[in-house]
Amino acid sequence: MKTGSSADFAKYLLSSAVLLRLGLFVFSLWQDATRWPDGQLRFTDVDYDVFTDAAKAMVTGANIYEARPTYRYSPIIALLLWPGHLVSTTFRLSAPFHAAAYASGKVIFLSADIFCALLQRSIILTENASQSISTHTISWLVGAFWLFNPVTATVSVRGNAESILGLCVLACLWSLLQNRVVLAGLLFGLCVHVKLYPIIYAPVIYLQLCDPSNPTLSLLPTRRHWHFGLATLAALLGLTWAAYAAYGWTFLDHAYFYHFTRVDLWHNFAPHFYPIYLFEGALALNETTYDPSLFPYNHFPVWLLEAFFWPATLQRLYALFKVLIMLPSALLITGLSFRFWHTPSFAWFAITFAFVTFNKVCTSQYFLWWLVLLPPALAHIHTLSGCRKTSKGLFGCVARVTGLTPSVVRRATLLAGLWFAGQACWLTIAYLHEMGGGAFWGRSLWLALWGASALFLIVNVVILKCLMKWLPTSISPTSSDRRLKHSRSPPSPMTLLKLDKDKEELGGIIRKRNVEKIINS
What we know:
Elements: H1 6-34, H2 46-60, H3 64-67, H4 75-90, H5 95-127, H6 135-147, H7 150-155, H8 162-177, H9 181-194, H10 202-209, H11 223-247, H12 249-261, H13 273-285, H14 302-308, H15 311-324, H16 327-340, H17 344-358, H18 364-371, H19 374-378, H20 393-402, H21 406-441, H22 443-470, H23 479-483, H24 493-520
EC number: 2.4.1.-
GO molecular function: alpha-1,4-mannosyltransferase activity; GPI mannosyltransferase activity
Organism: Taenia asiatica
């Protein structure tokens, strides 16, 4: 089923992915111009307009955060779009060139999208140098889960900048695997500056840089920790200081502090939205007595409801709720780091997947955070012990084409179907709500939407648990682990004694054969 060499096949997939994105890019220009079919529907994301306005403000020397108050990102994103708008403004080009300047940012995001695939392939080859995974299978993993993934292929074309951050995250992981600690630190500082969430990788990076040759001192910082930490601080503080010098406190407030105080009252995939919605609504009413028309919970005593809806009580409960919803992410990030640090790409993926799943806000954009790490993570479970190598039917055909085992194809299809089904359930109810169903169905539709969010969370937990279960426990340290001086626990004295005994027996057999050769000669 393979056509040509693996290298030719990889080039074919990459070229096809580029053509796909160029086709979507041309379609986005046409759709934005025609607004087919109702004259209102756009293909480009509204976030891209935010980036564009910030870049235009940067060209004129204005404060990008005051020119576009909804711009809540690092100035680096606007800086990437700045050259196109600078050329267009300076030389007073005609309308087609203005359109090209407007779309130049999408070309940058698309390019970063393709470079992500190249880094994913390099990471898989580095981590699995000692494993039996073919380059043909690697090409299928990157192609199926990134290059031709409908989510990833569309997001960059719509003008979302997540591919830029994804490229930085992959570059940081690749640098660690290549033992380029200072470069990894600089890239990690860049990642945290662009967006705060990559700080979740700090625990697993610390464990990756540890030297476990001395079990007693294995968790103490080493020279490599200092090199990485200083490089991270240099990049993070340098970029942050430069942005602060240019835009002052407004930059810190919009790019960082806003995300700590942000309250998303509208529905999203996270089930936290409904309790937050109720808390904010009850506090906004500022009622001092229980109103049964608003909260008709007749099966509770009135005195209990009055105490519960007292503003001071609500504020304390709301503050406690905000703390409690952060605990699952914190515990999972720490636990997953300690469990999977010896398989870095899977650890980074699992940490990101858990963080997005249990975050208080979860939108489709956040899926890109873990999708960019999915192909390298799946490379660790491309074969499973006890799987049949041959199988009939569709799964067997796909397995022969991709080089995967039929069991992996079957289980991957099941998990993908489960994930899309959970998402489709939520989107269906959300669509009914958006179309005015909330006014007709009332509280029942809100509860159904919250139930769909809870169901989607459960689906994600099941998927992560299955992937963790299917990760082979017998993975030996990869070549990248050896470069990072990683190893498993030191062998026990009994193991060393057995190895010495085996060596002696082998030496005796070799000497006996040599003597027999001499006698026969």
